[in-house]
């Protein structure tokens, strides 16, 4: 979504590669493929076997890195990160990978997700004498590793990871090894690939495509992978819990050309559109989707309903993301700058507008207005996911129900607010069944917390704002 992105945003994307002479350059390309997961900051830490070499900055990947800068941190291994701030806020000190130097060895960490027990762990560490340099919950992991009483780095890291609760897909780099870990519920996506003899990991498989790597497998929940000059071996830091991957990865966050646990995102979204057309029948002349994440669902809806799909809206690729605008008025103007209706397609037509989700309602209202201003006689909004009614504590920037339109209004009230002629959402069962996961259980391996309010992990009291506590079970 566009102006609403400020309320629905993935925290970040991670990338890592070990054993390639052009590791730093390939990390740049990998981060470029993951740019949609975060635009506030980007960083790379590489190693030549003797030291960890950092390069990071605020802004887009193409703004932070130049060929000259990348050449200065050349190495045979590197990890990278693109960031959208949720926990910890913005600021260069919070841009990852976070690098920590000490007399007993250095380490760098890239982390995707949020820790629901970060406040408790941080308080415990501070009482033991730790001093934190950032407001990112990722730093907690580094302190836990360094303060662990185990003898080897591997055992220290596994012990530290076992203490974390919540969502975390982590890549850790030292001069001697790269380590990969995924939380026991598998809340965030993380894949493993190979490029010749080099090992590669990334939040999404689209990053493998851009660097020429071959997908090997998904990283398993609770798994701890160790990659050195001697190869890769898999261990565990925790037993896997009930699989609960974020459903919004399939609905919105991931790129259509990525595969998550063997399921292509475009194909899953298209099936959601097909199911949506089965659940609701509307008389209309044309189907259109909100660029880009809703196009696949719109195509599916069109094919199932028999109503022709048309490019009813064009996205301006050269406008910055609207969530960074400081006021509501500027955000709404940003939507108008970023999307333009194709007048000859929608004029005099009854339009079905397919979108992936509604968070605040700001963008939906503005797009409905744009289509009607362009001459659409009716605008029917159909959403390829259920209403988002509950906050997320695992790395999506919706930490309070107060900002969610569906948490505070009926569907009819929402329809009136956005100005649509009708408003329909996909059912929870329809969404889960048509994404295509085969994990056992009624949830089929999904986290559905933002839709149902059922959280796969314990939510610690100080994770929730005081006025929200009665809503979180």
Automatic annotation (TrEMBL):
Query: In which organism is this protein found?
Result: Planococcus kocurii
- Pathway field: Purine metabolism; IMP biosynthesis via de novo pathway; N(1)-(5-phospho-D-ribosyl)glycinamide from 5-phospho-alpha-D-ribose 1-diphosphate: step 1/2
Q: Which reaction does it catalyse?
A: 5-phospho-beta-D-ribosylamine + L-glutamate + diphosphate = 5-phospho-alpha-D-ribose 1-diphosphate + L-glutamine + H2O
Name of the gene this protein is made from: purF
Provide the cofactor note recorded for this chain's UniProt entry: Binds 1 Mg(2+) ion per subunit.
Q: Where is the active site?
A: 12
PANTHER family, alphabetized: AMIDOPHOSPHORIBOSYLTRANSFERASE (PTHR11907)
Full protein name: Amidophosphoribosyltransferase
| Protein EC | 2.4.2.14
- Look up keyword Magnesium and say if it applies: yes
Function text: Catalyzes the formation of phosphoribosylamine from phosphoribosylpyrophosphate (PRPP) and glutamine.
InterPro entries xref list: GATase_2_dom (IPR017932), Ntn_hydrolases_N (IPR029055), PRTase-like (IPR029057), PRTase_dom (IPR000836), PurF (IPR005854), PurF_N (IPR035584)
How would you classify this enzyme at the top EC level? Answer: transferase
NCBIfam families named among the record's database cross-references: purF
Q: Which cofactor does it need?
A: Mg(2+); [4Fe-4S] cluster
Q: Which residues bind Mg(2+)?
A: 293, 355-356
């Amino acid at each position: 979504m566009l102006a609403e992105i400020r309320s629905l945003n993935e925290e970040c994307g991670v990338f890592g590669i070990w054993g390639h002479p052009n590791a730093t350059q390939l990390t740049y390309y990998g981060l470029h493929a993951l740019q949609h997961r975060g635009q506030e900051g980007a960083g790379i830490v590489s190693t030549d076997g003797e030291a960890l070499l950092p390069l990071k900055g605020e802004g887009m990947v193409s703004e932070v890195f130049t060929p000259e800068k990348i050449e200065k941190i050349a190495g045979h291994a590197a990890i990278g990160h693109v960031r959208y701030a949720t926990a910890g806020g913005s600021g260069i000190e919070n841009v990852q990978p976070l690098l920590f130097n000490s007399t007993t060895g250095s380490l760098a960490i890239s982390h995707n997700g949020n820790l629901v027990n970060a406040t408790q762990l941080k308080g415990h560490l501070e009482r033991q004498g730790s001093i934190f340099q950032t407001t990112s919950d990722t730093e907690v992991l580094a302190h836990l590793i360094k303060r662990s009483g185990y003898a080897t780095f591997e055992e220290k890291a596994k012990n530290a990871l076992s203490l974390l609760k919540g969502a975390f897909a982590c890549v850790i780099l030292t001069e001697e090894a790269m380590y990969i870990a995924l939380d026991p519920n598998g809340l965030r996506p993380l894949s493993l690939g190979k490029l010749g003899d080099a090992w590669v990991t990334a939040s999404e498989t689209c990053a493998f495509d851009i660097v020429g790597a071959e997908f090997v497998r998904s990283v398993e929940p609770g798994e701890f992978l160790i990659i050195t000059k001697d190869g890769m071996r898999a261990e565990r830091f925790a037993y896997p819990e009930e699989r609960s991957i974020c459903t919004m990865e399939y609905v919105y966050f991931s790129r259509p050309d990525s595969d998550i646990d063997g399921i292509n995102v475009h194909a899953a979204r298209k099936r959601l559109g097909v199911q949506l057309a089965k659940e609701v029948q509307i008389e209309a002349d044309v189907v259109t989707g909100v660029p880009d994440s809703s196009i696949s669902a719109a195509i599916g809806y069109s094919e199932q309903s028999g109503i022709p799909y048309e490019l009813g809206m064009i996205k301006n690729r050269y406008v910055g993301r609207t969530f960074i605008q400081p006021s509501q008025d500027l955000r709404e103007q940003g939507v108008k700058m970023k999307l333009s209706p194709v007048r000859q397609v929608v004029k005099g037509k009854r339009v079905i507008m397919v979108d992936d989700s509604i968070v605040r309602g700001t963008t939906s209202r503005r797009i409905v207005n744009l289509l009607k201003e362009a001459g659409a006689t009716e605008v029917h909004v159909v959403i390829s996911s259920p209403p988002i009614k509950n906050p997320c504590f695992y790395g999506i920037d919706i930490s309070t129900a107060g900002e969610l339109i569906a948490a505070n209004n009926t569907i009819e009230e929402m329809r009136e607010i956005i100005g649509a002629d009708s408003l329909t959402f996909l059912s929870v069962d329809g969404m889960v069944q048509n994404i295509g996961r085969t994990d056992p259980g009624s949830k089929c391996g999904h986290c559905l917390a933002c839709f149902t309010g059922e959280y796969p992990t314990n939510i610690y009291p100080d994770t929730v704002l005081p006025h929200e506590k009665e809503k979180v079970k």
